[in-house]
Every structure is written in structure tokens, then in C-alpha cells.
Specification:
The protein is mainly α. The protein has helices spanning 2-8, 11-32, 38-52, 72-77, 79-82, 86-106, 112-130, 136-151, 155-168, 185-201, 204-207, 209-226, 235-242, 249-273, 278-294, 304-321, 323-338, 347-354, 361-393. Helix 2 (11-32) runs parallel beside helix 7 (112-130), helix 8 packs across helix 16 (304-321) and helix 15 (278-294) packs across helix 19 (361-393).
């Protein structure tokens, strides 16, 4: 037993497992046929449509179903795959997606045993995301890399990752909010402006000015046409289940933004007095990983690799202070979120219970709610304590 545990505790074993996971899933979908790798085809064909002068943001039923919605620069990022054989490109894509998440977790300023927990805890959720060839593992990794580079004082590089995430999915920009807790905010902002201009102008040399403007106009028009009231795998979706008449999606999202702003304001003020400790900074990272999914009206089951990573960090932080609560969170998230779409449960359960009742959302919402309460209460208590101390000392001064 000890030898098995030691084997799976090695970083090399974890890396090999992540690479094999990506490779096996890629091969599996090649054999299953185009319908099983539809998202990859959408990404692959986008650059070819841009080059051909056609609108990449409309339907192409002869090539794939659904519509490409991503940033124009994403088409360039994916352009190498457009010229590879589909079977080669698909395997490389799933392997890269798996490896980047492994690397991002490895970069976190936590102990090896804590990294092991994160790696293995998200492993099954990662396999679920890879089956849809979506970009959510990359979004998760870019969020973690933002944090890691801020921790290492690499401000310019840290500014790049949220903007790369934005060029994949707009909500990835939220990770830029972490910069306010670190030194040299001016350099971060200046770097962000530079990266923003570079990434948004990236298609210009390839397309020329007229085609460049045309593609951006097509992208904006597509986003405007695609927006619709949706509840998703989110807090709003849970409210809709509890209260069928619920329609105030925007109101709940605004409340979520206000809670995020209040939390950030409290800890920004604290960071002006003295640097936040690593536990607090990791708590804020966990918070934003959960928040960005739970208040996203378009959140799908496949996006939960982001929230599960946030839950994993929260569990690690609670393990020392409240081990029983951390153990309960581990069980709830693992069995009701991570395994909810797996073959552990009969297909009938998944169709009639787990999916329609958004069981996947409930544990992450619980974790976020408790974390929200803890962050606000700890922040206000410590601030109140500092104020009372200054009042007590003022007569002496």
C-alpha cells in the first residue's frame, strides 16, 4: 500500500497520467467520429473561414453544428491546428489542454502534498472537460498562472494571462482583479494596456485593415445576437428551480458583482496597511474561481473544472483549521459535482435527477457561500480590531 501511495505521489506519475488522459480521450473521439469532436472542428475551421473571407461567426452545417463565438485573435492561436490532419491535431489539443493545467497547478506556491491533492481532485473533472474539447482547462490554468506570476513578482507576465483568457472567453478577464493585492499596480496596468493592444491587433498583419475591421464587426454582431436570458449551471439556475417564477437574472448577477466588489475593497484596504498573507491570497483566488462560474448565466456542466479547482484550494485552506468541515466539503464536491456526470451513477439517475436538478452546482455554491461569509467576517473583524487599537492609542499620542 505504501509503495502504491508513493508511486502516485511522484510528480512524474502525475504528469504521465495527465498526458495519457489527454491522449486517450483524443484517440477515443477520433474513433467515435466527427460528432464527438464537434467543438474541435469549430475551433479548427475558424481560421480557414477568416482567411477565405467568409464570416466565421455564422453556421456551417456541412462542417459542424453550433456557432463559433470566440475572439478573432483566437482564430490565430488555433491556426496551426487548421493545417494538421484532424486526428493529429485533436490528440495534440487534448494533450496540451491537460498538460497546461498540470503545469499551472505545479506553479502554485503550495506544498507538494497540496499540489497532489489539487492534481488528483480535478483529474476526473478534467477528463469530463476534455471530452468536449472545450477551452475551460486553459481558462483555469491561465487563472492559476496569473496568481503564480503575481506571487513571483513577474508583474508584466502576470498581466498577459487574463488577457489571453479574455481572448478565449470574455469572463477570463476576471483574474486580472487579483493584481490589486500586489506591489507595482502601475506596472501591471501599463503591461495590461500593452498586451491588450498587441493581442487585439494580432490579426491585423494577416488580414489587412479592411478585413480586420470586418471580422471584429462580425464578432460583435454575433455576441449581440447570441445574448439571451439563460439560467445555466449557476446560482440563477438554482433559484429558478426553487422559485419557478424567478426571472431576475441580471439582479442576481449585479448582487454577485457587489459582493465581489465589497470583498475586494475590504482586502485591498487591508493590503494598503500590510501585505496579505498567503492563506488570504489563496482564499481570494479560490473565491474568484468559484464566483466566475456560479454567477455566469451561460455556465455549463463542462465549465466546472474552473469551480472545482477553486473548491480544491478552499478545502486545502480549511483542512488545518476545520478538518471535519473540509472533509465534508471534499465528499460533497467529489461525489455530487465531480462524479455527477460519470458512469458511477446509473444513466437514469443522471437524466432524471443530477442534470435537471443541477446537483453539480449545489456543493460549489455551498463552498462559495461559506467562503464569502468567512472572507467578509474575517476582513471586517480585523479591520475593526485595527480601528479600535488606533483609537485606544490616540490619547497617548
Amino acid at each position: 500500500m505504501k509503495s502504491i501511495k508513493a508511486f502516485f505521489s511522484k510528480e512524474g506519475t502525475v504528469l504521465l497520467s495527465f498526458l495519457l488522459l489527454g491522449g486517450i480521450i483524443g484517440v477515443q473521439h477520433i474513433f467515435e467520429g466527427p460528432k464527438s469532436y464537434n467543438n474541435y472542428l469549430i475551433f479548427r475551421q475558424s481560421f480557414l473561414h477568416v482567411l477565405a473571407g467568409t464570416n466565421p461567426y455564422v453556421e456551417y452545417p456541412s462542417e459542424y453544428f453550433d456557432i463559433f463565438l470566440y475572439h478573432p485573435s483566437f482564430t490565430l492561436f488555433f491556426s496551426p491546428f487548421s493545417y494538421l490532419p484532424i486526428w493529429v491535431g485533436l490528440i495534440i489539443w487534448t494533450v496540451i489542454s491537460s498538460y497546461v493545467l498540470f503545469y499551472a497547478i505545479r506553479s502554485l506556491p503550495i506544498t507538494h502534498s497540496q499540489k497532489l491533492f489539487c492534481w488528483w481532485f480535478v483529474f476526473i473533472e478534467l477528463s469530463f472537460a476534455l471530452h468536449y474539447q472545450q477551452t475551460n482547462p486553459l481558462i483555469t490554468a491561465l487563472g492559476l498562472l496569473t496568481f503564480s506570476n503575481l506571487e513571483n513578482g513577474k508583474t508584466g507576465r502576470a498581466a498577459l494571462f487574463p488577457l489571453l483568457a479574455f481572448c478565449i472567453k470574455g469572463y477570463g478577464l476576471i483574474f486580472a482583479a487579483l493584481f490589486v493585492f500586489y506591489p507595482r499596480p502601475g506596472r501591471y496596468i501599463a503591461s495590461s494596456v500593452g498586451w491588450f493592444l498587441l493581442l487585439n491587433l494580432l490579426p491585423l498583419p494577416v488580414l489587412g485593415w479592411d478585413r480586420f475591421l470586418e471580422v471584429y464587426q462580425q464578432w460583435i454582431a454575433c455576441l449581440q445576437a447570441d445574448y439571451k436570458v439563460n439560467y445555466g449551471f449557476s446560482v440563477m439556475g438554482l433559484l429558478k428551480l426553487i422559485w419557478p417564477a424567478f426571472q431576475a437574472v441580471s439582479t442576481v448577477q449585479i448582487l454577485g458583482v457587489l459582493l465581489l466588489a465589497a470583498t475586494w475593497s475590504i482586502y485591498w484596504l487591508k493590503s494598503r496597511v500590510q501585505p496579505l498573507n498567503l492563506t488570504t491570497r489563496l482564499s481570494l483566488l479560490a473565491y474568484v474561481l468559484l464566483w466566475v462560474i456560479l454567477f455566469n448565466h451561460a455556465a455549463e456542466a463542462q465549465t466546472y473544472i474552473i469551480a472545482v479547482q477553486g473548491a480544491a484550494l478552499y478545502i486545502l485552506l480549511e483542512k488545518e483549521r476545520y478538518p471535519r468541515w473540509a472533509a465534508l466539503c471534499t465528499l460533497l464536491v467529489f461525489f455530487l459535482t465531480v462524479l455527477s456526470a460519470s458512469d458511477v451513477y446509473p444513466p437514469l439517475w443522471r437524466r432524471t435527477f443530477f442534470y435537471p436538478y443541477l446537483i453539480k452546482v449545489i456543493p460549489c455554491t455551498l463552498v462559495w457561500f461559506v467562503l464569502q461569509f468567512e472572507l467578509i467576517s474575517r476582513g471586517l473583524q480585523q479591520r475593526k480590531h485595527r480601528i479600535s487599537e488606533s483609537q485606544y492609542r490616540s490619547p497617548v499620542l
